[in-house]
Amino acid sequence: MHGPQPERARFAFALEAALAGLLAGTALQMGQPTLWVWPAYGSVLVLAAVMVAAALYLRSRWWPRVLLALAGGLLAGGLTGLRALAYVGDALDPALEGRDIQVTGRVAEMPQFNDAGIRLRLAVESATLAGAAVRLPDTLALGWYAGSLGSAADGLLPELQRQPLPLRAGERWRMAVRLKAPHGNRNPFGFDYELWLWEQGVQATGYVRSGASDLPAMNLGPTGRHPVEQARQSVRDNILATLAGQREAGLVAALVVGDQNAIDRADWDVFRATGVAHLMSISGLHVTMFAWFAAVCIGRLWRQSARLCLRVPAPQAARAGGLLLAAAYALFSGWGVPAQRTLWMLAAVFVLRLSARSWPWPSVWLLVAALVVLVDPWAVTQAGFWLSFVAVAVLFASDTGRSAVAPGSLWVRLRLLLREQVVVTAALAPLTLLLFGQVSLVGLVANLLAIPWVTLVVTPLAMLGVLVPVVWELAAACLAGLGWWLQWLAAWPWAALALPQPPAWAGLAGVAGGVLLVLRAPWSLRLMGGALMLPAFLWQPPRPATGEFALLAADIGQGNAVLVQTANHALLYDAGPRYSRESDAGHRVIVPLLRALGVQPDLLVLSHRDTDHAGGAAAVLQAHPAAALLSSIGDQHALQAIRPAQRCQAGQQWTWDGVEFTVLHPAATDYAGLQRPNAMSCVLRIASQSRGPDRPSRAALLVGDIERAQELRLRAQGARLQADVLLVPHHGSRTSSSPEFLDAVNPRWALVQSGYRNRFGHPAREPMERYRERHIPVLASPQCGAAQWRSDRPFVVRCERTEQRRYWHHTAP
For residues 668 and 649, what is the distance between their CA atoms, to the nearest angstrom? Predict the structure, then answer.
């Protein structure tokens, strides 16, 4: 006869199996390249129901658990697929891309400012094209650029940071917009912008039109909608006005209303190097600490009334009040995904506590994770989801979660809290490396001070400033002191360890090893965990063999950036565009990509000075002080102060690991004349080593923005132009890719680096027709993403957008 305890254990095991299956099924559904039709997902749900019925009927020990795990996976996959299908049905009609549309809508969120203008979310009420009504997605992400703001900004963007913005949340506006589908850059290990917009519910992006033929934008007046966003904007404006000119103003705004836009890029670099970036935005830690503090205050007040305690026990009232106030804080701070995730976690724990039962921690952990995933399935693609849940699991498994609240002196509690921080830091190091490609070696020291200082001192002061604005000055002063401490730590040699991002198998082995290392287990088992961590930290990506080279044309929008690797060397040809005064391809794409690949470039070749080629160069040179610079930029160019440049000129030649590099243009005499920047583009030919008739030399030709005159000149001079891969001149403009040049190069592949629906119309129809006539496949970055080619596999080009496709990714025509 079985007692209640075995029955409870059997139920817990069955529940854990179903919940684990649900998590696994959601993760597997995220890997779908394309969505199925709805009957397929409906069939999956029916099959899940059949499996649940079978599990309830069977009386064996293991089969019900297996069936429940499979049912949970099928249920999650089917529900997520149906939700995704419904969402995709509201996508922007491709026929409306690039058209001038009159839209009436409400400013749905607090607008964001930057050096280029204003970013806003518009909730669409109606839209017309040429007088006819059209259907648009519910929410648009729009840019209203500086040149279009007119007198509202007085043409001075810095003023936007010191005065209220020219539009307010909740206002109704009529404006002309030009839209396109969400389309981001796709690079190995890169940020998935399209997934981020998917989670935000945005299915169209664009900008406000202000041409001579466009109707001017018109403010139709305030509405009663979006009151929370109106309050957030008022508080944000008050913070920036109170702390005008102080560097900490953006940090205070981030902690109070969740607006991270005013935080300097240099500050973010310090936060990442010291491992405290999670503290400088509304994260799960802030919401949890707010809930805890609110619960403590409510509990103490509740205990003052015997009548209230008889109606509702003080612990329950404290938890419920803390949860409600945490929900209000999350809502006021922007209702971001991390805050939502934490709120659902707290709600699940609160409900479990109401049951007055002692639940095993795996059941609690899986139930909370499953609830978060059911509400937001795409949370499993976010780094914060795994960091937070793995950290909690480690604390439970290592028993520090219960020990930390055990009775004892203050010194004992501090020791236990220190042990918790050490355990979490050690266990999460492999996961952090897998997700971000770097680990902060000073993170433990930084967080020991930063976590209590920010959560218990700075954040309460910042929130109190909403009622007493002068307190914001004190919060800023506290942040200034913390900033000095973090900058000192970040300046340490080896403050952050940047390593190549390991493959999934090595990363998962490292995570398992990190967990084993901190468990209360025999040292033989814990040392095995240390061994499992080694592949993640010692991983080195494969390099080309001697005599061969690999080429990666990064997806950086409208510009050029090509990485060339040999067995022991690396060259970067161009560094991509500058997106704005505070953002460029070097900082956002190239430097993280080089770090993830474990590449230290020996040479940066800048074809010429145009910002779509040299815009990211400063970030690359600062991140790689050993890299030399070869370019046609002038002696007075700003980059010369960072790294003196050697002039590129025809005839320069060198060999790395058996691979030959040759500069074909410009000539030394060209520097004496007044040449246009495009005409001065450095042309570089790279050729692998010939290994006999069966394995001839393979070549790539990188030509920058040369035009027809330079193309014909190179051919007339008898330059060796033949190549297997051609970086299409000038992004495929009408002034390049002449027939004579293409015949001389005769490439097997042609790569175009251009932005999706860029304003220049690159690549143009006429030159692309010339490639088609010669049966030369053209791979453009909007359709291909980052393109990878190797000289030892010349017949294959790997497109990142194809190889790593997910159903939320946009397919460019």
Answer: 6
